[in-house]
Design brief:
Elements: E1 2-12, E2 19-35, H1 36-42, E3 49-54, H2 59-70, H3 84-87, H4 107-117
Parallel strand pairs: 2-3
Antiparallel strand pairs: 1-2
The structure holds zinc ion.
């Protein structure tokens, strides 16, 4: 099976904190084998991913895994817009977790700061 997926995922740019559409192309070959034992046995010496026919593979989960693995670690615009506020008003009701105003992209950095104050 040849799996080709072109997905675009909205992420937050780690430079300007604006929204960035990240295309995630997936182009992989999968080979079906009889069961998971056969998949384990052959997994080491072939390039394709092996999918066991039994139990029936959840193709949606397979695609999801591929997408997650394809996600950029640090999503960023190739070129950040000059005025990201104009594109994504800070007060827009978003689906994201609320962050501190002018907040940092890295929650661990915020944690570290809090710890340092104690
Ligand atoms: Zn940006």
């Amino acid at each position: 099976m040849h799996l080709q997926v072109e997905a675009t995922v909205p992420l937050t740019c780690q430079r300007c904190l604006g929204a960035v559409q990240s295309p995630i192309p997936i182009d992989r070959w999968f080979r079906f084998v009889a069961d998971e034992a056969a998949a384990d046995a052959q997994d080491d010496d072939c390039d394709e991913d092996l999918l066991a026919i039994e139990p029936r593979p959840d193709l949606l989960a397979v695609v999801e895994d591929e997408l997650i693995m394809g996600l950029p670690l640090v999503p960023m615009h190739d070129t950040c817009p000059d005025h990201p506020e104009a594109l994504s008003p800070p007060r827009a009701e978003g689906t994201e977790e609320p962050t501190e105003m002018g907040g940092r992209p890295n929650p661990f950095a915020a944690l570290a700061r809090l710890k340092g104050k104690q």
